[in-house]
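Comment thread on ticket #2218

A.B. wrote:
> Attaching the input chain for the structure job we discussed in standup.
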Amino acid sequence: MTDVTHPAPAFSLREAAQLAMDRFGIGGRVTVLDSERDQNFKLSHDDGSQWILKIVNASEPVSECEFQVALLDHLARNNPDVAAPRLTISQNGTPLADAISDAGERHAVRLVTWLPGLPMAMSGRTPALLENLGRALGRLDSALQGFIHPGALRTFDWDIREAGAARQRLHHISDVADRALVRGLLDHFDAAVAPHLAGLRAQVIHNDANDWNVLVDEDNHERIAGIIDFGDALYSPLIAEVAVACAYSILDVEDPIGAAATLVAGFHAEYPLREEELDVLFDLIAMRLVISVTLSAQRKEKSADNPYLAISEAPAWRLLRRFGAMNRRFATSILRNACGFEATPGARAVVAWIEANRKSLAPVLDRHPATQVKALVPYGDPAHPMTVTSAARQPDKATAWWDAWCAEHGIELGIGPWGEARTVYTSDIFCSRFIEGARRVHHLGLDLFLQAGTKSTRRSPAPSEAWKSRKTHSAMAVS
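C.D. wrote:
> Ran it. Output below, let me know if you need it in another format.
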């Protein structure tokens, strides 16, 4: 099992250049590239050719190194249109070489072609880019269908199936509220999500489509130029691929679930997802973030000077806190809808039943609305006195105005229409937990304003008080 806490290799630029020449017969200028647990170098030849020299962490088993080589070879042989690095054969005729560090540790070494492009982390995230990222990952995973290797059957800390192991790292989180948030997410994952993962589709996936491993075209930042670094690839649930990509792509965006839905829709267009996969996606995104923040907290004690480890820690915490405040069922409905499924399973059947039985449904009111004198409640007018007093949270004044106006004009039934824009939603309960800085402004129901004591077809135990409560509730615009 790969130990993600094992120190990364520490070869110098001179040593890296010598390795490239000795093992692969290729020379050039060497520069350092960031890496989490391996050591990566960029090799640039005078003729314009470029490569990436990867010195693999000593803790990675040989079978896993061989798996990554086999994966890249599979893509090159069977799906050359997939934009992924290409292997370079070493002097000994194989794609893998090795090197011994000064500490006596043996490291696998490989050289792959450099893919031109700009890391997505350095470009703006537009809906078109997120959709194209989803499509690119869908094509990649479609190309990996049926591919398997013994080294793919591994697990390590970044395996989302093992997210529950993050519980052992909770004590590294110093903030009490944050620790409680993560514990609550883990409790839900262990009880409601983890037991179902074994029943989902699984295959070899990239497993690390973060915004530094995704390249965009330098001239068109909405086009995906390539996906690099297959060091975390493994055999895992297919939906984990989408969850990992979403976790990084929606950091610090105004509407994270909307952004995730765009990416998911792109993936679904290339590689159709299933309802049961989408039903766990919200929690798997959260688990990727949990793994990230708990590993960062743990590693601060060992590698406090490694900026790569903390590069996404702060935005990950911000997103986790937002996730903690969201209704997961509502979020899942958005993700399901993006793929053309029912937002809630069974919704279409309910609508069809209502449509088929609409003529036999009992009326709500004792008297049919057609026989009553009606008027729209003036909440659609932001300057109206009733709206102003409701927005100021003065229900008695709003109710008094409505009662007096109805008495003067003989109004028996007031109607608050569906979809009406209203300025009365001033309470914090109308602040969106999904879109940062947004709040609800449209009425999502049909209000019926009637005098206290009005009869309905189904009497309540205390009709007068019930209706008075309903009317005051509407005047406060909290319905």
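A.B. wrote:
> Thanks. Noting for the ticket: The radius of gyration is 29 Å.
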